[in-house]
Design a protein that fits this description.
Helices cover 55% and strands 0% of the residues. With 94 residues, it is mostly helical. The protein has one domain: lambda repressor-like DNA-binding domains (434 Repressor (Amino-terminal Domain)). Helix 2 (26-33) packs across helix 3. It is elongated and about 50 Å long.
Length: 94
């Protein structure tokens, strides 16, 4: 069986693509969901993550589920870690 490995991308890239597709500015989205435009800009530039609250706001404004945004963020964060950095932590048997 062949394994496919998809490289996670920052959720901000997905958000920016969505905004472009529906022709909505970052500023307009920020106003609509009650956050500073800087917040949306930082997410879109990959400088800020997606919190549970932001996931809910994006879900309400753009559709889809909050889990979608949180999963994108979690997958991104995990992809930034090196498993070898944690090799010294032994398994604990319960």
């Amino acid at each position: 069986m062949t394994k496919f490995h998809l490289t996670p991308i920052h959720p901000g890239k997905i958000l920016q693509d969505e905004l472009e597709e529906i022709r909505l500015t970052q500023t307009r989205l920020a106003e609509h969901i009650g956050v500073l435009p800087k917040t949306i800009n930082e997410i879109c530039r990959g400088k800020r993550g997606i919190s549970a609250e932001m996931a809910m706001k994006l879900s309400r404004a753009l559709g889809g589920s909050p889990q979608f945004w949180l999963n994108l963020h979690n997958n991104w964060e995990l992809s930034q870690l090196k498993e070898s950095d944690f090799e010294t932590i032994p398994h604990i048997a319960a």
